[in-house]
Specification:
The protein has a 7-stranded mixed sheet with strand order 5-2-1-6-7-11-10, sandwiched between helices. The chain is 33% helix and 20% strand. It has 7 helices and 11 strands.
Length: 209
């Protein structure tokens, strides 16, 4: 199984690396990080770089496509090589997936028209404006398109997808191998649970209106 993760400058690292840690453990899986141009792609804060070993044209028919999000998503909203590649590989992919605002890139490429999908909670309205049916859920399946909510939800999405691909036992073994048993110190991981003043502070700083 060929798994391809699109990366770009100013991405959010966990959007890509979280699912990578899960999906790379699938039996007989290979994972390739691709970009419009190979090389290092730095995260939104500039502190970390991930490396694309292949260009888009090097990977014409992956089984699984994953699009992360991050501030750099804003630069991938106009039609161009990335959108063309996404539309082309989506025709033959088994699964086309995204994490966080990566779903906005899928939507801008025309792949989410009339599809149920999710994104970071601050981006759900924008997702709707791009033609998708926004759903406030952590992981959303609509046919072969699988979208995850913000950042950490990519791990949940990847484990759910691993179960679809290889069965529950394999997915559970992967979950155990990465010891994914979260017990966060605060119950503030969604706008419904976080203190109202924190929600509003994040809204005021949001890229989306």
């Amino acid at each position: 199984m060929e798994i391809t993760i699109l990366i770009f400058d100013r991405l959010t690292a966990l959007d890509a690396v979280g699912p990578y840690e899960v999906l790379s453990r699938l039996p007989d899986a290979t994972v390739t990080f691709v970009a419009e141009e190979p090389g290092a792609k730095r995260t939104g804060n500039g502190f970390l770089a991930l490396t694309a070993d292949a260009s888009l044209t090097d990977v014409p028919d992956p089984d699984v496509v994953l699009v992360p999000g991050g501030v750099g998503q804003e630069g991938l909203m106009d039609d161009g090589p990335v959108h063309e590649w996404l539309r082309r590989v989506h025709e033959t992919s088994t699964w086309t997936t995204s994490v966080c605002t990566g779903s906005l890139i899928l939507a801008a490429a025309g792949l989410l028209e009339g599809k149920r999908a999710t994104s970071h909670w601050l981006a759900l309205e924008e997702l709707g404006r791009l033609g998708a049916i926004p759903v406030s859920e952590r992981v959303v399946f609509d046919g072969k398109i699988v979208t995850a909510a913000g950042v950490s939800a990519g791990v949940d999405m990847a484990l759910t997808l691993a179960a679809e691909i290889a069965g529950d036992q394999v997915a559970q073994a992967i979950q155990l191998s990465i010891e994914y048993d979260p017990h966060p110190p605060f119950d503030a991981g969604s706008p419904e649970k976080a203190p109202a003043e924190i929600v509003e502070a994040l809204r005021e700083r949001a890229r989306f209106t």
